[in-house]
Amino acid sequence: MSFLRDARRFLLVSALAYLLLKTLFLSGLTTAYIQQIVLYAFIVIIGALGLNVIYGYTGQFSLGHAAFYGIGAYASAWLTHTLSVEGVFSFLPILLAGGLCSALVGWIIGFPILRLRDDFLAIATLGFGIFVRVLLDNSDKVADALGGSRGFVGIPRIVNLELVFGVLVFIILVTRNLIGSKYGLFWQCIREDELASSAFGIDTGRMKSMAFTYGCFLAGIAGGLYAHLYTFLHPSNFDFLKSIDFLIIVIVGGMGSITGTVFAGLVWIGFIEGLRIALPSGALEYRWVLIPVLLIVLMLWRPSGLMAGKESRLLGIEKRL
Predict the structure, then answer these.
(1) Structure confidence at residue 1 (pLDDT)
(2) Structural domains counted in the chain
(3) Element containing residue 177 per DSSP (H, E)
(4) Are 55 and 264 in contact (CB under 8 A)?
(5) Which of 19, 30, 88, 234 has the fewest Cβ atoms nearer than 10 Å?
């Protein structure tokens, strides 16, 4: 019962946060650019939650998360373009389809690559990410609407605050329930010691595949929202550096922490875009010197991340881990 009560408390706080954001959006105190960045931050958090399940909770080091982000983006954009979908409610099944496409691909490639561990798994997922990037560069040979290296244009802007915030809250609740379930406990056992987990009867292959598939599904959902926020896709949006963005958020927030991922996602996107606004155009590239220095300082100060293994009481899972 306390688990359900905590969910109600989380929904109440989420409703208050939504009302605050909606008031700010309607008041004119925030520009259209700031509003877009806020929505983008929520989208990135969804994708980072997927990587946190894969890496933070299950210990599977993936460097190809942006590939599944891109698959979800292109799949949902192609469906809306083909079916001429423009409404939010008719877009929801397409968003789900984009997430399922990423999940299906993740499930298929999970069979061979999840047999690998540590650096070998990272190299395999990195290779898959490069493969997807090359495939997107040449996607116009499969369907001209996909644009290939020219980019995918003509995507309707469907995303709004209600859609992105609602999807984020729903995904946090689903992920919270998974982490608090036996599957979440199995994932964490595998992260700590896969051999011991197998000896105690846990089907480690099945559990790793489940975590990887779910993480890829969240990346696909995030990609679908991204596509219909910016209305233009280019293969360079889903390269290796985008995977590093997700990885930084998971590590800075603290592996194995939903709360940390949400907090770090907001801080990371706010920091990156804040520098874009604060720095003069001639000095904009210097932010890529400042950012690594700050990350090094943070890792020296908190090597396990800001909230490793910790959760907000709103989620109600801190006593179940």
Answers:
(1) 45
(2) 1
(3) helix 161-180
(4) no
(5) 19
Q: Tell me if 318 is assigned to some domain.
A: no
Query: What is the helix, strand, coil percentage profile of the chain, to 5?
Result: 80, 0, 20
User: What type of residue is 219?
Assistant: A
Neighbours of 121 (CB within 10 A): 21
The pLDDT tens digits for 269-284 are: 988 888 787 777 776 6
Based on the number of CB atoms within 10 Å of its own CB, is 295 exposed (0-12), middle (13-18) or buried (19 or more)?
Answer: middle
CATH of the domain at 212: 1.10.3470
* CA–CA dist 97, 272 (Å, integer): 31
**Among residues 182, 190, 318, which one has the least CA distance to residue 254?**
318
| Partner residues linked to 233 by β-bridges | 152
Question: Quick one: pLDDT band at residue 201, thresholds 50, 70, 90?
Answer: confident
Query: Beta-carbon neighbour count of residue 88 at 10 Å?
Result: 15
Q: Token digits for 279?
A: 């720095």
Domain that holds residue 60: 2-301
DSSP string, 282-305: GGGGGHHHHHHHHHHHHHHH-TT-
What phi and psi values does residue 152 have, to the nearest 5 degrees? Answer: -95, 115
